[in-house]
Every structure is written in C-alpha cells, then in structure tokens.
Amino acid sequence: MIEPVIVVIVLVGLIGIGAPIFLALGASGLLGLWMARGPLAFFFAPTSFFGQLNSFELIALPLFILMGNLLGATPVGQNLFRAAALWLQWLRGGLAISTVGASAVFGAVSGVSVAGVAAVGSIAVPQMLERGYSRGLAAGSVASSGALAMLIPPSVPFIIYGAVSGVSVGALFIGGILPGLLLALALAVYIYIRVSLNPAEAPRETGPMPPLGERMRALGGIWHALLLVFIVLGAIYSGVATPSEAAAFGAAGAFVLAAAVFRVLTWRKTMEVLASSVKISGAILLIIGCAKIFGDYLNLVRVPEIVTETLTQTALPDWAILLILMLALVLLGMLVDAVSLIVVTTPILLPLITTMGYDPLWFGIILVMNLEIAVVTPPVGLNLYALRGVCPMLSVEEIIRSVVPFIFVQFFVLMIFVLFPGLSLWLPGLL
C-alpha cells in the first residue's frame, strides 16, 4: 500500500509549490492509475475526465455563474443594503444586521459568496465606519454573511455536490433554505447581543426614521431581481423546470435586467462579464474533471472502503465520528478551495455516511455548511481577500481577527444540523 502514500505526497507537494489545484489532482491521480494499471491509465484518465463532465446537471453551473455575474454588474447589491438599512435604522446595530440581510438575499441572487462580499461590502463597510461602528464589527459582519451565498439557493456548491454524488440538485436547493435562514438569523442575533453588551461598537441612530414613502421607494431598486430569483427557484421546486433549464431562464432574465432595466451593460462590460463567467466556469469544471481522475484512483485501491471499515469498527459512537469528520473538513477547508474539497472528499466520505445510516442529501448540506466556514478562514478564505480588495482601508490582519467570533457562531449552527439531521431533511420531505 505504498502507492497511495506516494500519490498523496505528490498531490500535497504540487499544491505546496503553488501548482494549480486541477493540475495537482489530475497529475497525482494519473500517477496513481499508472502505478495500479500501467499504460491503461492513459485510457482510464480521459474517460474519467469526460465522463464526469458529461452531465446534464452541470449545465446549470456556468448558467448560474453567468446569472450571478450579470446581476453583480448591476447596483442590486448596493440597493439591497440601502433598503435594509432604511428599514432597520431604528435598531441598534441595524447597519450590521442589514448587511446580513442584504448578503442573504444577494446570495439568492448570485449564488457566489465572493460576489456578495464585493457588492455589499463596498458600500456597507464605509457607511458603518463613517457612522462610528467598530472596524471589527463592520468587517466581520460582511465577510461572514457573504458566505450565505454558498447555502442559500441557487448555490454553486450544491450543483457540484449533486453532480458528484448523484443527489438531486433541486432537493439540495430546498434543503439549503432552512439552514441558510437559520444561519442568517444566528448572525443577526449575535450582532444584536454584541452591540447590546458593548454599545460603543454600534452607536444608535439619532435622526428620525425615514418616511414610509422613502422606504418603499428603496424597495423599487430590488424587486426585479427578487422576482427573477423567485421565478427561477419556483420553477425548480414546482417541477416545472430542471435546475439547468431554470438556470438558462435565469441567465436570460439577468441579461434583460442588466441591459434594459438598470442599463449598465455596454459592449465592453458585456464582454467582461462573459469572459469572467467563462473563466470561473472553466476553472471549476477543470477541477471537477481532474478530481474525478483522482477519485477513481482512490476507488480503485479501495480507499473509501478502507476508511469506512476503519471508522465503523471503532468503538466511537456515530456522533463522535461525525464530529471528527466536521473538524477535519473545517481544517481541510482552511487549506483547499471549496470546489476541490467537495469533489475530493465526497467519494471518500459518502460511503461512510451511508453505511452509518445517514442521508446523502443531509451530508451535502452539512458539507456546504463546512465550506461556509472555510471561505472565511485563512489562509485560503477567499471572502477575506475579496473584502480587502473592495475595502482597502482594512488590513488583512484586521479582517482575519474580525471574523473569529463569527466563525464560532457558524460552527454552532453547523453542529445543530449535525446532531439533528431531521432539520435538514424536513423541508425537502415536506415539498
């Protein structure tokens, strides 16, 4: 069994020297297949690669990314924050809580956490700092709530997990609603308790409440995008359309909103949005395909079976095994990007999860909740660097310190759904 050790060393070594993750996965997987099957590896590897990508469900991936990028080019994110801030001005810490609400809704619009951090953070952080909010509260609320986009549908990680595991993407979308809303509520409650205990972190607004007419007009800048998301998700949940078909409608609708309603699409801007969408989609699909090569090697040498047999034969109760897995996933998420973590760990851990009697749908939701923590945890926490990019007044060190308490809140909510699996499955079972 020295070959798997060599393969893992090659994988870690390539990642360590800065090689692209798709290259590290593909090269180490190909090496393993070659050691196990000789020249046949050069037949198995392309078959694995194209077989993984030849999936109807994956069509939704570039289309939802395009939809998110088109809406990200509009002022929807800023409008969401302004509307939430106007309606919650009476509440201490209202701006920070508005950030959570705006990020949750923008997550449903874009499906990409980095886009939410950039769109909401660019206006939310300067406004909070200008009104006397602490730097830690301003940065932490934006970075952590931006991760809600990974859980609230339409979610790109759910599409990837569905393609790898065979679980219905529509069921995953439905299953992510309750955890996403509960996590948003938990972050808002934490902010309220924090500013109540330390009022200096969020001075109370002294001016009068804005007139009702002004607050209603603020909703006028977001209803188009919310209606589009409602139609897209409604088509999926009602069975009228598959996720891929709904994604195509969503991308077309987002183009109409950006071009005709908000009028932000010049020819150059359109090409930039398309180029960005192609680049992101291509990178994710490359990782998925190369990870399948690596995963097929692991299956060939029975790594998932060995892991399952080893852990199930221990005297540990199921909850203890799950806790170990959750901690391992959080630690891996600190070092590996979300897409790679899904496509590499799912083939290894899913057999163990099903052997223990848990639902693959539940595991997909739990896995994505782990990734929410990963994107705000250094050194690979992309949300941290996205926030630094749009808010240069904040240092990376400040941002990292600011998210620590929010990470504990996220982990607390994660453990609720780990220990009570029925919460994740209640809404999919109901619908």
From TrEMBL:
<feature type="transmembrane region" description="Helical">
    <location>
        <begin position="319"/>
        <end position="349"/>
    </location>
</feature>
<keyword id="KW-0472">Membrane</keyword>
<dbReference type="Pfam" id="PF06808">
    <property type="entry name" value="DctM"/>
</dbReference>
<feature type="transmembrane region" description="Helical">
    <location>
        <begin position="96"/>
        <end position="125"/>
    </location>
</feature>
<feature type="transmembrane region" description="Helical">
    <location>
        <begin position="246"/>
        <end position="266"/>
    </location>
</feature>
<comment type="subunit">
    <text>The complex comprises the extracytoplasmic solute receptor protein and the two transmembrane proteins.</text>
</comment>
<feature type="transmembrane region" description="Helical">
    <location>
        <begin position="218"/>
        <end position="240"/>
    </location>
</feature>
<protein>
    <recommendedName>
        <fullName>TRAP transporter large permease protein</fullName>
    </recommendedName>
</protein>
<comment type="function">
    <text>Part of the tripartite ATP-independent periplasmic (TRAP) transport system.</text>
</comment>
<dbReference type="GO" id="GO:0022857">
    <property type="term" value="F:transmembrane transporter activity"/>
</dbReference>
<keyword id="KW-0813">Transport</keyword>
<keyword id="KW-0812">Transmembrane</keyword>
<feature type="transmembrane region" description="Helical">
    <location>
        <begin position="406"/>
        <end position="427"/>
    </location>
</feature>
<comment type="similarity">
    <text>Belongs to the TRAP transporter large permease family.</text>
</comment>
<feature type="transmembrane region" description="Helical">
    <location>
        <begin position="137"/>
        <end position="164"/>
    </location>
</feature>
<feature type="domain" description="TRAP C4-dicarboxylate transport system permease DctM subunit">
    <location>
        <begin position="8"/>
        <end position="422"/>
    </location>
</feature>
<feature type="transmembrane region" description="Helical">
    <location>
        <begin position="170"/>
        <end position="197"/>
    </location>
</feature>
<keyword id="KW-1003">Cell membrane</keyword>
<feature type="transmembrane region" description="Helical">
    <location>
        <begin position="56"/>
        <end position="76"/>
    </location>
</feature>
<feature type="transmembrane region" description="Helical">
    <location>
        <begin position="361"/>
        <end position="386"/>
    </location>
</feature>
<dbReference type="GO" id="GO:0005886">
    <property type="term" value="C:plasma membrane"/>
</dbReference>
<dbReference type="InterPro" id="IPR010656">
    <property type="entry name" value="DctM"/>
</dbReference>
<feature type="transmembrane region" description="Helical">
    <location>
        <begin position="273"/>
        <end position="294"/>
    </location>
</feature>
<feature type="transmembrane region" description="Helical">
    <location>
        <begin position="6"/>
        <end position="35"/>
    </location>
</feature>
<dbReference type="InterPro" id="IPR004681">
    <property type="entry name" value="TRAP_DctM"/>
</dbReference>
<keyword id="KW-1133">Transmembrane helix</keyword>
<keyword id="KW-0997">Cell inner membrane</keyword>
